[in-house]
């Protein structure tokens, strides 16, 4: 997974030098894609499909499936075997504007359970990873969520519901409440990296109302393996699916969830 992310990352970095020649296609209002998203996904797909996967001691290769934002967004999660969940370029709008904060995100489910995640920040080179039960790392070093318990000192990440404007009124009420009670809010523009920033303690918490499976698959595991919580707005463990995410250290997650629900 790290090899696939690195290869796609090199491709994206090369293309970042010729932004003015890129053609933006509009998937829906404010949602763009270019040949870079599509090309990066092709690289990840080819590398992940390169070798059959076997469980230790089992001859039969595992069934393998891929949900990729650009090529196979509607693919089903397999209840047995491996499902790769890939966002080839998270932060496309940042990328297209030369704003240096975008990533390749790859999650892996085995029999429907998240087992591994990799998020590579292509602009900075920072690489986050986690395996189920094996902890979370940044550039190979273990990471933990923040130890701050005071909301008044907290830095909270968020994402705006720019593709789901019907959620804007609710979001703005939440935004006002969190702004009043914390040290600050940041909207960096790549949800996979927002979750990694929770995992390594830069953000005390994060919330966004509408995310997709490929935005969160890797980041959910990275947060949890770093000692954090990542749930829906009812406080249930968030699945790899479309929906809202509330993440944070255990203390800040509880506080943030309570404020958002209120
Ligand atoms: C988007 C980014 C953004 C978030 C959006 C996502 P994309 O992903 O993660 O931060 O607010 O909801 O769709 O389209 O750049 O891959
Ligand atoms: Ca994304
Ligand atoms: Ca994307």
Keywords, separated by commas or semicolons:
binds D-MYO-inositol-1-phosphate, binds calcium ion, alpha+beta, five-stranded mixed β-sheet
Structure description:
It is a single chain. The strands form 3 sheets. The chain has a 7-stranded mixed sheet with strand order 3-4-5-6-7-8-9, sandwiched between helices. The chain has a 5-stranded mixed sheet with strand order 11-10-12-14-13, with helices on both faces. The longest helix has 14 residues, at 2-15. 43% of the residues are buried. α5 (191-199) packs parallel to α6. It has helices at residues 2-15, 35-48, 92-97, 168-181, 191-199, 213-225, 250-261; strands at 25-28, 31-33, 64-68, 82-90, 103-110, 113-121, 127-131, 135-138, 141-142, 155-158, 184-186, 205-211, 229-231, 243-248. The chain is built from 7 helices and 14 strands. D-MYO-inositol-1-phosphate binds at residues 87, 90-92, 159, 189-191, 208, 211, 215.
Give a topology summary:
Layout: H1 2-15, E1 25-28, E2 31-33, H2 35-48, E3 64-68, E4 82-90, H3 92-97, E5 103-110, E6 113-121, E7 127-131, E8 135-138, E9 141-142, E10 155-158, H4 168-181, E11 184-186, H5 191-199, E12 205-211, H6 213-225, E13 229-231, E14 243-248, H7 250-261
Parallel strand pairs: 3-4, 10-11, 10-12
Antiparallel strand pairs: 1-2, 4-5, 5-6, 6-7, 7-8, 8-9, 12-14, 13-14
Helix pairs in contact: 1-2, 5-6
Bound molecules: D-MYO-inositol-1-phosphate and calcium ion (2 copies).
One calcium ion (CA) binds at residues 87, 90, 191, 214-215.
